[in-house]
Amino acid sequence: MRRRHFEAFRPLCPHCLRTGAGPQPLVIARVAAERDGDILTGVLHCPNQACQHEYPILDGLPLIVPELRRLLSERGIELLLRDDLDPGLESLFGDGIGPDSWFDSLRQTVSTYGWDGYADLDPEEAPDPGGPQPGAARRCLERLLELGGAPPAGPMPPRMIDAGCGAGRSSFALAARHPDALVLGCDLNLALLRLARRVAAEGWVRYARRRIGLAYDRRDFAAALPGAERVDYWACDATCLPFAPGGAAVVSALNLFDCVPDPPALLAALAAQLAPGGRLLLATPYDWSTRATAVQGWVGGHSQRGLHGGAAEPQMRTLLAAVPGLRLVAEQAEFPWHTRLHNRSCVSYRGHLIAAARDG
């Protein structure tokens, strides 16, 4: 956790925010390891006498979420797993643990997001003219920045939030486009955040690229990205971001809207972070799953007997209009997003792109 980002974003206790106890600024209670203003291991603490929650920092990642025990019970293994295993041993363990296991699911996710985020920088990545090309998230964000335009001239907070940042390449794209801004990537996938943090802090990419089935190839290569020193990554819940409202010039959320339990609550939470004139950049393929969102919370994709015949786009516009002070600036009905799964498989999405502004 970069001290520079801690001081700029001034995180609040998410437990106090969710329970209605009010904004309680977190303090750095313990630093066990630090390098050049980057806290690698330590503890954040809520000084509220009625709360006293603690939030760990491990491998430079602060876990600032309202339900910390749940996150650790579900995903804590991603922080504790070794990432220095010999590739042969990793393959042996992968075969032994087997397909459809937690280990298999974890490696597939990191492979998919790691490849899209950084394969364009990989010297071993062979061109595939007929297949998916890496950089879908980066291209999507760049298109959204074009649609949304720049925030208005004048005093704007030099802070930007990339919610649901995944492997983090979109956060670097924000930093490259806005050279005066500090960018904070937030996600709940700890394995992806570890990958992103290594790129930001060390300029290095390491992940296992899925070839097919349980066969993976280790990727290790340098990635010197412009503005990396202005990017940090924190584990945060996008529906309960631990920041005071109105502090961000840009908030982006790519393919996150259909991955949360309460999509309207996500819209309200993200919009609340915007300063007057700030931009909200959204992309979603409306690829609903009941594992993430109960069917009654889907925006489109059901109730085809209703007014819009199950279409998502008009419902999304209605939700945006219901958020106080939020105004639709531009949208694009379809944007291609190809996700590589392995050498012989990919998923093709057509995302709905939305750029909105917070009125002053």
Automatic annotation (TrEMBL):
GO biological process: methylation
Record carries keyword Transferase: yes
GO-annotated molecular function: methyltransferase activity
Keywords of this entry: Methyltransferase, Transferase
InterPro entries according to UniProt: SAM-dependent_MTases_sf (IPR029063)
Highest rank taxon of the organism: Bacteria
Name of the protein this chain belongs to: Methyltransferase domain-containing protein
Originating species: Siccirubricoccus deserti
Organismal lineage: Bacteria, Pseudomonadati, Pseudomonadota, Alphaproteobacteria, Acetobacterales
